[in-house]
Specification:
The complex is a heterotrimer of chains A (233), B (256) and C (207).
Chain A lengths: L5 H34 L5 H13 L2 H12 L4 H10 L7 H26 L2 H9 L4 H29 L3 H6 L10 H10 L4 H31 L7
Helix pairs in contact in A: 1-5, 1-7, 2-5, 5-7, 6-7, 7-10, 9-10
Chain B lengths: L1 H23 L5 E5 L3 H13 L6 E5 L1 H9 L6 E3 L3 H9 L9 E5 L2 E6 L14 H5 L4 E4 L5 H12 L3 H4 L3 E4 L2 H9 L5 E5 H6 L3 E6 L9 E6 L8 H9 L1 H9 L3 E2 L1
Parallel strand pairs in B: 1-2, 1-3, 6-7, 6-8
Antiparallel strand pairs in B: 3-10, 4-10, 4-11, 5-8, 5-9
Helix pairs in contact in B: 2-11, 3-4
Chain C lengths: L2 E9 L2 E8 L5 E5 L6 H9 L6 E6 L2 E5 L4 E2 L7 E4 L11 H11 L9 H8 L14 H14 L4 E5 L7 H17 L4 E5 L2 H7 L2 E4 L1
Parallel strand pairs in C: 3-9, 3-10, 7-8, 8-9
Antiparallel strand pairs in C: 1-2, 1-4, 4-5, 5-6
Helix pairs in contact in C: 2-4, 3-4
Amino acid sequence: MTALTPEEWQVLVLSLKVSGVAMAAALPLAFVLAWVLARWRFPGKVLLDALVHLPLVLPPVVTGWLLLIAFGTNGPLGRFLAEWLGLTFIFRWTGAALAAAVMALPLMVRAMRLSIEAVDRRLESAARTLGAGRWRTFASVTLPLAMPGVLAGLVLGLARSIGEFGATITFASNIPGETQTLPLAIYSALQMPGSEWQVTRLAVLSILVSVVALMASEWLARRSGQGSAHHAL
Amino acid sequence: MRKPLAFILSLFMAFAALVPPAFAQQSGPLVLAAASLQESMNAVADAWAAKGHARPKISFAGSSALARQIEAGAPADLFVSADEPWMDEVQGKGLLRPKTRVSFLTNNLVLIAPANKPVRLKIAPGFRLAAALGPNRLAVADPNAVPAGVYAKQALTRLKVWPSVQGKLAPAENVRAALALVSRGAAPLGVVYATDARAEPGVRVVDTFPAASHDPISYPVALLAASRHKDAEGFRRFLISAEGKAVFRRFGFGTR
Amino acid sequence: MPFDVAITLRRGKLRLDYAFRTEKGGLTALFGPSGAGKTSLLDAIAGLARPSEGHIMVEDTVLFDKARRIDLKPEQRRCGYVFQDLRLFPHKSVRDNLLYGWHLAPPDRRWMDLDTALGFLGIGHLLDRRPATLSGGEAQRVAIGRALLSGPRFLLMDEPLASVDAERREEILTVIERIRDELALPILYVSHDRAEVDRLASRVIAI
């Protein structure tokens, strides 16, 4: 009754794989966006900020629909990627990963941007006078100081991506073994009368994963606040 | 601080006072209907409303999902399922009003493709469906639970084609979602009801499944035990009347 | 001719002109009230602020020359800058702070080694501590040590006694005097305190 069936294990493994890949792809992009928004000033910056936050405020189904238009079989980006990289998304775990990454991105960018903004730039100028060039300063001063926030953003994004449903089911569909992640599996199980035990098992799993991710994110965020101070002494 | 609060509060109460009159207006009975009945059921409901009754509210979904909602206590009046087993399931739980169950519609199963694709296939035992799919997927309603998918699985099994396509399915939560996958070009082929193919200009019928390849597709209707609406029984009778059935026939259904 | 500075800095709508030259080495004090722009001047010499016009030469090396389009990056100027707010790296130990610039300098430029600096400044017992746990005087000495260990050709010191309590003032003053006398480094020393300036400076420039 309480043990997971092989199919349910498969769902869990697929969920972790999809989210893992989504995070690997989203992390560098989120960091770059966070950096640009934190450090640069340019015309249209407000527009970029709004664009990045769009998946956070749009109904997930709308985001899924937009992904469909852009990356679907007939979409401009979908056709381009299929032709040049052999990359397809519909009905495939890559689609689930793309949906998860897009939905998690705003949360990650927010957390990382705060963390980058908190780094005291006077410390960076100190490093420069000591002989460090731009990249070395970034690697030895800025990044380590921003790291706890970056990690917190990563974990938060991970939690969000594991729970992603609306955009995934709209964009990648609900294919067992390919795109049927944890939330989609629960949804499917709910469609069948008499599936209480299955739904319960999957839901408990979902809660466990989310709680662990949230706690980790909290701990990391707190570490970045008290542990190593961002400011010069 | 108090003034704005008082203002907002009074705004709220004014709104609350205005809203009930909107609800007091009489609304029609709630009908839970299989997804394949979308256009036809709406047309019948319009015909019923034209006679001066309150127009029924209809919720369309896969029959399995509807059965689940009924079991969970959904306050609905009528249930129209796309197969007998799901009606049996609900009846077995004592959720139907006795002696109100009638099987009144039939349908056919077809293989469809996007309208602009010239694919040719003849449905026969062992036909080369998997080869025609190539690396792509066959759009069907969920073959585990949704009637259209169950019929599709039956037909493909009896035609000895199921093992070769079993791993190449794109299961959708109802037959209309499967229809959309084909019309959108996401799947090159799909299995839906003949009435669905008629309703969607973006697809064309490649061939019709022989009636012998699957259980007869039969739509039962019944009044739910929880029904409270005074019009519910009237609407049920209208559905199974000659006039009601004529509407369904216009959309391609068979009647019994 | 250690310092030859003639620049114009713009701060918002404000225009600040500076010009001075020093003949010999030793400690040159920049003396003036707070807010007069002394820190901005040091920042410009270190390469952290760009003047709108002029030139900066230290020990016959051109660091900045608007007319000739020369503008060395901070890391190329070999400047040891002891900031008013110290700016020790909070995520690194005292040892790693001290050696930050030392590791980055090519071996032939490292004219001081760690042990010498520790002895000079009396901070050997602090190596494994974190900057957050240091007292004002200890942190000040670590900041000086960090600048010295980066192999600089000249020193910029911005109000080094500002964050030091009265008891420690003497310690730091002694350290600075030793730097002035034993290490042949030109020093630019910013302060608003007449007494400090009188004690340490070979010459005073009023800002």
